[in-house]
Amino acid sequence: MNFLAIIGEALRALRQNRLRTGLTMLGMIIGVAAVVLMLSIGQGAQTKINQTIAEMGSNLFIVVPGATSSGGFSFGSGSIRTLTIHDAQAIAELPIISATAPVISGTAQLNYAAKNWSTIITGTTPDYFSVGNWKIESGTTFTESDLRSANRVVVLGSVTAQNLFGDEDPVGKTIRITNRPFLVVGVLMAKGQSLTGRDQDDNIFIPITTSERQITGNQFPGSIRLMLVQCKSADEMDIAEIEITQLLRQRHRIAKGKENDFTVRNLTALADVATGAAKVMSMVLGAIASVSLLVGGIGIMNIMLVSVTERTREIGIRMAIGANQRAILTQFLLEAMMICFMGGLIGLLLGIGGAWVVSQVADMLIVITLGMIGLAFLFASAVGIFFGFYPAKKAASLKPVDALRYE
Amino acid sequence: MLSIQTNHVGHSLIRIEDISKSYNLQDANGNTITNQVLFNINLTIDQGEFVAIMGHSGSGKSTLMNILGCLDTSTSGSYWLSERNVAKLTNDELARIRNQKIGFVFQGFNLLKRVTALDNVATPLLYAGIGRSQSRKQALELLRRTGLENFAMHQPNQLSGGQQQRVAISRALINQPPLILADEPTGNLDTQTSREIMSLFQQLNRDQGITIVLVTHEDDIAAYAKRLIRLKDGHIIYDKDNNTNTTVDKLSRTFPA
After folding, report:
1. Cβ neighbours for B50, distance < 8 A, ≥ 6 positions apart
2. Do A9 and B126 touch (CB under 8 A)?
3. Confidence class of residue B163 from pLDDT cuts 50, 70 and 90?
């Protein structure tokens, strides 16, 4: 018997028992839909984290001043102001480093017309925007010359701009920061939340010189709160960390055996941890969904076994008119596989639809990849073959006379 | 014995020697009871014969029929079908023989449920490896000759008993087998329809030389055959020619001319 004809026989058998076929398929549909949905949610979370990390800027170190202690009490990191703008400039000159951005920060009250808003103010250098992967929505960032002259110019985060200006274009307007007039030169594109959930768009940026002299003030002139350091290549992060540490120890004249008065943190390493956690989450979700696929498969085996018993006489007739064991085996196996395949297809569509609904309702990022679709189908076929084989084998190994006599 | 065997080589279609069949059953105490239904049956049927195997229920006639049809195997003895030792054949070869050499007609018709008459008749061709459209074409031609072309798209439960049995006979004939095995083919039919079906068998036997082995417990049905074999309790009681066989020549219906 040729294969096409067997496919036809299997299809017809499925059509003859629409209700049973449909119910069996339901198990498969739910299983595959669950797998696709779970994988797409997991993948979405992973992608979201990767995006956040990319937005944070790549190959980043954050260098903060070290801790000081007095009378046995440690005051925590940053409690002494050992890092300076000059340290940042020196590190920037290392060949392995592409840029550094020193930061001092504080909070400030902003006024524009009748509106006022309080937010974080960051004093930094123009390199901050490239290092931190900030993009400009309108206008420009402040410049090196603004930095040198300590000009009163400000770049607004998108949320701050929205709160102060509403729909108005802020560029070219003057706002007051702690009662001093500042010219708005640019507005940043929105970044959304950071990995820790902080709104990164509610802030303003001014030249570090302006900040130090006019806004935040400084107990120790030239000292900074932290600096961002960007390495040229991801592969050289380890070497860069050693070079930064050595340079700073040298500049700070730290004797051998003494502890650093600063801390270098590799942000990429932190990001790897977050990505790893997301991967584990999506694997766990996938595993849970696979259980429902397994249950669906067992349902298929169950129905196929019942079907073999119920159709024993039919099998006998087919054998009497010339079906060999292979033809019977193939037909039943195909029936199981078709249920899985069709169930898989419907489940896939349902899963994609469900993922869309989740993305709309829960405002989550959902990612569906071709690999995921392939995996769902592979799984569905595997379940079909695995759970279809035993009933098919059972049907094929019946003795013709016993099958025919079955009532 | 040896000389008799060689006499038959070349023209005997069916040759069985010392065929016995027994079943092992468990009684209530778990003891195995052997129930023997056939005792050392010897039988030779030549190409072109029309044989009726008669007997009451429990005589072993259906068991013998199942063995002849390669649906069951004997406990001992040997069976040559077209000079091939059936015991030595693989499952696939047996399936091929059932497909090519034997056409089955059953008491309960045994048509595939919810499958059209046309596809029922065409199915053996599918198992023979012939494509579906070609199979349907041949099946329709056969149904036309049986006068059932208007019922080709009907399912078995939409057909009368006589129509169903004619569909079953068409199915048995589609691969042009040399042998038709009919197990109580008129058991579910009324007298008039039974006569029509039996005349069909007679025509097939007479016009196309198809060997027909009929199993029945009704003497008037057996009377259509040319040779009568009676079984009782697993033994052949007699095996004789039927010189006074019934013929239904007056029937207008013609079958494969």
Report:
1. B201, B202, B205, B211, B212, B214, B224, B225, B226, B227
2. yes
3. very high
* Dihedral-angle region of residue A171 (phi above 0 means left; psi in -120 to 50 means alpha; beta otherwise): beta
Phi-psi region at B114: left, alpha or beta (left = phi > 0; alpha = psi -120 to 50):
left
Longest CA–CA span in chain B (Å) reads 60
CA distance A229 to A128: 9
Interface test with A, best of B102, B126, B169 (most A CBs within 10 A): B126
> Which residue, B38, B124, B43, is CA-closest to B81?
B43
Give me the numbers of helices (H) and strands (E) for chain A, helices first please: 13, 12
CA A376 to chain centre: 21
Q: What residue spans define the domains of chain A?
A: 3-52+273-405, 81-260
Q: Do B132 and A5 touch (CB under 8 A)?
A: yes
What are the strands of the beta sheet with B32-46, ordered from one edge? B32-46, B12-26, B76-81, B84-85
Cross-chain CB nearest to A324 (options B91, B111, B132) = B91
Selected residue with higher pLDDT from B68 and B31: B68
Decide: B208 and B180 in contact? Cβ < 8 Å. no
Task: Provide the CB-side half-sphere exposure for A404 (13 A, CA).
Answer: 25
Mutation site for A-interface testing, chosen from B21, B23, B93, B112 by largest number of A Cβ within 10 Å? B112
pLDDT in tens, A207-222: 998 888 887 766 667 7
Contacts of B112 in chain A (CB under 8 A): 314, 317-318
Listed range (B6-10, B18-22, B71-75) with the worst mean pLDDT: B6-10
Closest-CA distance of chain B to residue A291, Å: 36
Query: pLDDT category, A80, cuts 50, 70, 90?
Result: low
Q: Which residues of B touch A316 (CB under 8 A)?
A: 110
pLDDT at B211: 95
The phi, psi pair for B13, rounded to 5°, reads -85, -45
**Each residue's pLDDT tens digit, A379-398:** 888 888 888 889 989 889 99
Residues of A in contact with B124 (CB under 8 A): 321-322
Average pLDDT for chain A: 85
B69 contacts in A (CB within 8 Å)? 320
- At A224 the pLDDT is 86
Q: pLDDT, tens digit, for every residue of B25-59?
A: 888 888 888 889 999 999 999 999 999 999 998 89
For A319, which of B95, B114, B175 is closest by C-beta distance? B95
ipTM of the complex: 0.89
Residue B209: half-sphere exposure toward Cβ, Cα within 13 Å: 4
The beta-carbon neighbor of A321 closest among B72, B98, B129 is B98
